[in-house]
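Regression test attached.
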Amino acid sequence: MTELEVDEDLAHERRAWRAQKLGWGVITLLLTLGAAGLLGEGPANRRTAAAENLSVRALYERTLRHNAQSELLATVRSDAIAGERALLTVGQEWLSSVKVHSVVPEPEAVRAVPGGMQYEFRAAGGDFDATFHFEPSGFGSVPLRLEAAGHPPLLLRQFILP
Amino acid sequence: MDSIARGLAVYFFLLLVFRLSGKRTLAQTTPFDLILLLIISETTQQAMVDNDHSMTNAALLILTLVGADLLLSVLKLRFQPLHRLLEGLPLVLVREGRTLDERMKRSRVDKDDVLSAARLQHGLERLEDVRYAVLETSGEISIIPKR
């Protein structure tokens, strides 16, 4: 009776089994991070931040996904609104890394200012909320600067996953 | 350039996931496995194609995937260690009618899987009629009966 001719290597197999176990650990870790919202989407991913003198607040997602829709809620405090005009400047770096699909409510005017774009809204009194619906088109860490006219800016970062 | 990078990223990600998941994953295409494969392909396709539905993008992606596969097959032929790493090696699970339990457990194969392969391939009725059962790199079990 002849022995089976097979290219078997038990040491290699044991290494492969160890690598597989490690791989399953990585898969579990990634799924846990995903479920916790650390890979974008989900409540754990939402953050709020405010400028030094609270003139602007933002509700945003810390981690974004490339080409996946997201929202940014920017609130301008009533005492940072002059008359019925809320002026909100958004930094150019952020605007270059996302495609803004719509801003609600629609701004009355949008103008280029040094370092970004200034959105002018008609405000009805009280704090003013503007929601930016956008889609990240870049990758990596992106700085977001929001500024109510004449007030210190709110600086934060979002991270765009591939 | 973006299409090629996306195609390569998806190709190597799938290669890694399926290699890490073991030989037996999706080796037997049950109806559920088939549905799972379809869902995986649909999910993959959306990430690869992105928003570009042009013929150029499709052609680039197909060429990237086929090219990566061709290149790896040539490299695997030339470099044996790479072949072993990417494809794995066959593993004997049953020798002279006796199961090698640790190997079977680690490979996620049970006695019923071996008996099923023995019935399907050679119409064998009992494990002792099996001389060798080998888990092939494809994830299938091949049976050599006792004469």
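Expected vs. actual: identical. Residues 55-78 of chain B form the longest helix (24 residues).
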